Amino acid sequence: MSIEQQPSLPPVLRPANPPRRELSELASRFARDVLGELAGIALSGITLATADLRPGEAFVAIQGVNRHGAEFAMTAAEKGAVAIITDVAGAEIAEPAGLPIVVVDDPRGVLGALSAWVYGTGADDDLPLLFATTGTNGKTSVSHLLEGVLDQIGVVTGLSSTAERHIAGEIIVSRLTTPEASEMHALLALMRERDVEAVAVEVSAQALSRHRVDGILFDVAGFTNLSHDHLDDYADMEEYFEAKLPLFRPDRARRGVVCLDSPSGATVVERAEIPVVTVGTPSIAADAEAAARADWVVTIDDERAAGTTFTMTGPAGSLTTTVPVIGPHMAANAALAIVMLLEGGYDWHRIVEALERDGGIRAYLPGRTQLVSGEKGPAVFVDFGHSPDAFEKTLAAVRRVTPGRVLMLFGADGDRDASKRFDMARTAVQGSDILVVTDHHPRFEDPDSIRATLVEGARRARPDAEIHEYSPPEKAIVAAVSLVGEGDAILWAGPGHQDYRDIRGVRTPYSARELARRALKAAGWPVPEPRWPVPYPPED
């Protein structure tokens, strides 16, 4: 597999031989008005971003937070756009660019349908099997586990997750959890062109609210859990939850698989408008009795730093296997993925035989409780978790596989949901022996102020705790390694797979996984060679 080595913008992803669509037909299907002559003009693609535009494509101009996309119509024309698709206000702004303009009432709202028509990726088109996963935590893990098991049974796969996009073995670093609708449909068309048979897609609440998966009918939708997060985008937890529910309607998915380990799972089952199968892990569920009544029940057999062994039992039979990451919640994610594959039509015995042959699930989960240390010295796990619930589950998992002390290293996002910071700090300090607070993505907030809030929250929860504060993270991980030894563990939560930090709008090259590896090496501990892109100069 090829890996993009630098934190640059992702490549433009388009089918090599896109269908050519007549602009006049597009207008007849979607327009409320037309400005300019459309006859004889064909388009080969569609995009929201001029940076992503190829000659022969249409540029969709929408109203942004601060500016209207139509202000970039001239740039689109210079780059070879054949038309502008926009609203009434945008049409007036874009007219000087001299391109034909197709006027629609709601450009973002219609983008999914437009893109599906342009690329031939709608519900009635010939596409790979499509698997969607939503929930607060675990979406990325389930998506990568789906891909891993599909690989093991010999299926050519595609993936779209927070961490990466995969196309039949090619790996591209991601920038959005779920791409915009125009990019998503182009990606599906490209995957189809490369003979991908099944695709795992991570679907955020924001993706559903912002029309990023409009025009796509998933074969199976999975639900992991719901916990405190994203209240910078939604008024409250109820609104956040409601944003996820449309995925379980017949216009979005054919079938569903729902985890009952969080209370919201039962509500999804109750509100779903499609056939639903359930999965439960009684040992970690908020309601153990409800989880035990699930169609598929998961029990934990063994936990080690290298993975978690579990047994899942349901209508098709019983399977004991291992997922290559720690924690019962990861076993629950793996079971959810396997049941989603069953609901997608894959044979149970084919899956069981592959997992037994390989000694467990073979999946690479970038930045998901990822062990970056060697066989000796402290164990160091780097994780993408950035919510109180994720902290609690992952710390508990690290604790169970650690004979010594557990050190928690974390920061908090700037310009994001600040309401969860005290809960993050409380959970972090209560689950660890040593706490180190550092910076994450400060964005346009003052990092000193963010750290002060986290330290205050931790001290309120445990006045007697050992708490340290270091900035920047490069200094924090070196200090953290110096505070622990053989048999201890460090959980660095937040950065996960990311290859940058957002500091006042500038994405600075950065890798927590590589910083941790180098800090261990500098302290004299043996470390493995990296399996991830390294956005830094080579080591001396």
TrEMBL record:
Residues 44-116 form the Mur ligase N-terminal catalytic domain. One of its GO terms (molecular function) is ATP binding. Keywords: ATP-binding, Cell cycle, Cell division, Cell shape, Cell wall biogenesis/degradation, Cytoplasm, Ligase, Magnesium, Nucleotide-binding, Peptidoglycan synthesis. Residues 367-495 form the Mur ligase C-terminal domain. The modification N6-carboxylysine is found at K244. Residues 134-340 form the Mur ligase central domain. Catalyzes the addition of an amino acid to the nucleotide precursor UDP-N-acetylmuramoyl-L-alanyl-D-glutamate (UMAG) in the biosynthesis of bacterial cell-wall peptidoglycan. This is UDP-N-acetylmuramyl-tripeptide synthetase. It comes from Microbacterium hydrocarbonoxydans.
